[in-house]
Structures are given as C-alpha cells and as structure tokens.
Design a protein that fits this description.
The protein has 364 residues and is an alpha/beta fold. It has two domains: 10-154 and 272-363, Zn peptidases (Aminopeptidase, 3-Layer(aba) Sandwich), CATH 3.40.630; 157-270, Alpha-Beta Plaits (2-Layer Sandwich). It has helices spanning 10-22, 80-96, 117-123, 181-198, 237-257, 277-291, 309-314, 345-363; strands at residues 28-30, 34-40, 43-53, 101-109, 132-143, 147-148, 152-155, 157-166, 170-171, 206-214, 221-222, 225-234, 261-270, 273-275, 296-297, 317-325. It has an eight-stranded mixed beta sheet, with helices on both faces. Helix 4 (181-198) runs antiparallel to helix 5 (237-257) and helix 6 (277-291) packs across helix 8. The longest helix is centred in the C-terminal third of the chain and has 21 residues, at 237-257. The chain starts with 9 loop residues before the first helix and ends with a helix. The model has no long low-confidence stretch (mean pLDDT 97).
Length: 364
Amino acid sequence: MFPELGFQESLTQELILQELSALGLKGKKLAGTGVMAELKSKSAGKTLMLRSDIDALPIQEENAHGFASRHKRVMHACGHDAHVAILLGAARKLHAQGPNKGTVRYNFQPAEEGLNGAGAMIEAGICDGADATIGYHIWQHLPVGKIGVVTGPAMAAVDRFEITIEGKGGHAAMPQRAIDPIVIAAQLVTAFQTIVGRNVNPFDTAVVTVGQIHAGNAFNVIPPRVTMEGTVRTFSTAVQDTIEARMTSLAKDLPKGFGAKGTLAYHRENPALVNDAAMADFCREVAADIVGKKNVVNPEPSMGGEDHAFYQLLIPGCYVFLGSAYKKGETFYHHHPQFDFDEHVLPIGADFVAHAARTWLDRV
C-alpha cells in the first residue's frame, strides 16, 4: 500500500529490517535505502547471494483492491512488492532449515527501475566474497505454477537516447521560410526502423523505439526545435555497436540534408542479462522439485531490461521467471496501471528460493 520510488524506499527499508530482525538477522543498510543480511551456517563454505528489488514505479494505480497504493502516482506496477515478500518468505524458511554449510546473503536492492540500484549496491560491497547469485521476477507471461528458466541471454541490454533537432521556426502557413524540425523528426523515426530491418542480421534481435517527441505549443506555428527520446534493446554487443553507430550517423546527416542540425546523446544503461549455463541447469532442477518437471519451461528471452545483469557480470548467476498470471480472466502486464498478479506465486517463489539456497550451498 505504500510503494516508494528508487532511492526513496525508506519505509520499505524499515519494514525489511524489522522482518529480518524477527528472524534474528541483523540487516545492514547499503546504498542509502538498500538492505543486506547474511545467514551463516556452522560450517564454512561458499556464499550465495539472493536478490530482490524493492522500488516502485511513477504510475497512478487503477486497481480497487484494499491493498492498492495509497501514494498518488506511485504503484508497485512491476511486482517488486511480491519480490520482497518472496525473499522474506525464503528467509523464514531458511531460518527454520538452513544449509549445512556456507552463507546465504540477502540483497534487498533499491532503484532497479532505471536508476542502477544494482551498481550502487555493488559499489557498497554487496558482491564482495559472493560466489554466485540467483535472482527472480514474477512473470505475467506465464501462468501461476510455471517457472521459466533461460540459458544464456535472458533479458536485453537497455540503451537510452536523446535527440535534438534544431530547425528554423516560422508561420505554419509559410513553411518555405522555415526549416520544419517536425517533418525531419518524422523522417528520422522512420529511418531508425530501417536499422533493424536492413543493418542488423535477421538472426539477431533488436528493438529501436522512440518513446517521446516534444515540439511546439501552437497549431499555427512551426517550432524551432524538436526533442526526442527512446530506447534500444539488444542481446549482443556487436549489434549494440552497429545500432549506436547508425543512429549517430542518421541523427546528424539526415537533418543536415534538410538544412537543420541534429545531435544525439546515446547512453548504455544496463548490459544484457546472461544466465550462466550451469546455474540455469541447476535452477531447472530446483524448479522441478517445487512445481514438477512438466511445469518448468524455457520461455522466450525478454526485450525488457534488468539491472541484475550487473551482478552476473561479476559472478555466475541465473535469473528465473516465476509464473504469476491468473489462469482465468484478463492479464495486465508489467508497468500497467491495473497490474495485478495471482498471489499463489508467493509461496511457490519462497519455496524455490529457499530450496535453491539450501541445495546449492550444500552441494558446492
């Protein structure tokens, strides 16, 4: 009911600390609003990091549930509240029956939604001494009771771009005396789509989306400039390089051909999330123990982004999709103002995470 945006999760942090304290675990504040805690076995061994993101999104909730958001224009539209509940549930199970050796490290990470909370937690030392990691996301693309595991690239790299087109303003009835940046922007949006269609190998995957265009404030005026923002999603660095190079060229040369000036700022925000093959095989095995082998699936990789990728650049890991869609009725997907999930995923997720931690630490 009280969702908080990235690096503002103070209430959430206090709740997590209270729940951990009730289990006899001393939580440590990291990266401002993040939390780390450890469950150490009596015998030395490896360290496995379990991670949950905790932040919400700037969306006005349109659900009428009693637990709907009480914060205006902020809601848990991506299920991070479920992720917290799952990891706390797993912590309770591991408190009752933990691994025989090694250390479980709990990572409650702030600011996943575009603010690189993972990077802040890494800088604060969350990965120091960790040998592997497991992350998860409730997944509206799978019905509750299914668990999806991908080997290799599971979620895309996230790039963000900003473009400014400087034209020449004028009267809408006299376009010959102006350089219309809106017309140029329209051409540029279309040209960007040819990058995927004509410069990227058809066997590779990529998305180029312009999400914002801002220009003008009157119906009868040609504005002097247009600003555009959008995102690029890829799975390989080679494709990422190709798209950035082509966009840079088009953003400069196409406006120039119309007598305008175009500038592009290109930001690589998250790398692709790539699951370690051995960890993926292990997670399939654990998932089969929880939901049965027939309910463990190999879903398509997602073009969505996830900053858990930064952890898996440093240590082997696997990011798992926990089916959360209702089996009947309409499904509202992630980042929708009516996002809602089947809460039966919560005990399934907690069982999976706890069983994975016990099994991996006892095995290695």
